[in-house]
Design goal:
The chain has 231 residues and is of the alpha+beta class. It is 59% helix and 13% strand. The termini are far apart.
Length: 231
């Protein structure tokens, strides 16, 4: 890469960083990351992010074209491929020429049929129940070098941070909703049964333990029953 490319890299990274301080959603940031991968990595033709949940649900996110998502579907169907391997096991998984690749026969067959010759997948370190990888495809063999890998790793870090931040925000919102529901449920129990706040809370905890349901769900059930119901 020449000096202009390095300047472009710095400018796009700065723009990604600024995007975190502005009101936006995780989808917007992930689309910026995958587009940056195509713009900054020489030879890259398309990119996306594959996430895999603890329940083995596969999701293709922020795809710059239909091709990465289609190939993610192939990997989800067969449970193997460079994106899956990077997300679950490896840091960087790379194939310089899929026509001679033997590691993932089903994926390779479909990828070559679609014209893809090179692939690089970068693991996202999210530290959550969701794992993922940034995947970059090229229609030429030997498209990616060590500098391409270095850029991909930086972009993957941006994507991982966005996913972590989004997950934490969702957890915070859920916690706030649960807190409010528990407060409402306590108030209802105090009024219905003429007990104090501590006793009302103990009633909720006991119901949670006996029903083997989270406290927030029990509180919601109490609230949903309404002020005139006692069971």
């Amino acid at each position: 890469m020449d000096d202009f490319d390095h300047a472009s890299l710095g400018a796009i990274m700065a723009e990604l960083a600024r995007s975190w301080t502005a009101p936006t959603d995780v989808d917007h940031i992930l689309h910026a990351v995958t587009q940056a991968a195509v713009d900054l990595i020489p030879g890259a033709d398309s990119a996306d992010i594959l996430t895999i949940s603890s329940r083995h649900k596969f999701h293709s996110l922020a795809s710059t074209s239909a091709l990465p998502a289609d190939l993610d579907a192939v990997q989800a169907r067969h449970g193997q491929g460079p994106c899956v391997e990077a997300a679950l096991d490896g840091e960087v998984v790379r194939s310089d020429d899929l026509e001679s690749e033997t590691r993932w026969p089903e994926f390779t067959r479909e990828a070559v049929r679609s014209g893809v010759r090179s692939v690089a997948s970068f693991r996202l370190y999210t530290r959550t129940h969701v794992v993922g990888a940034l995947n970059v495809l090229a229609m030429t063999a030997h498209a990616f070098d060590d500098e391409s890998v270095a850029i991909g790793e930086v972009l993957a870090a941006h994507a991982a941070i966005a996913i972590i931040a989004d997950r934490r925000e969702l957890q915070l919102r859920s916690a706030l909703v649960s807190r409010d529901l528990i407060g409402q449920a306590k108030g209802m129990l105090m009024e219905r049964f003429d007990v104090g706040a501590h006793q009302a809370f103990k009633m909720l905890v006991t119901l949670s333990q006996q029903s083997n349901h989270p406290l927030g769900e029990v509180a919601k059930r109490v609230v949903d029953l309404g002020p005139d119901r006692r069971h």
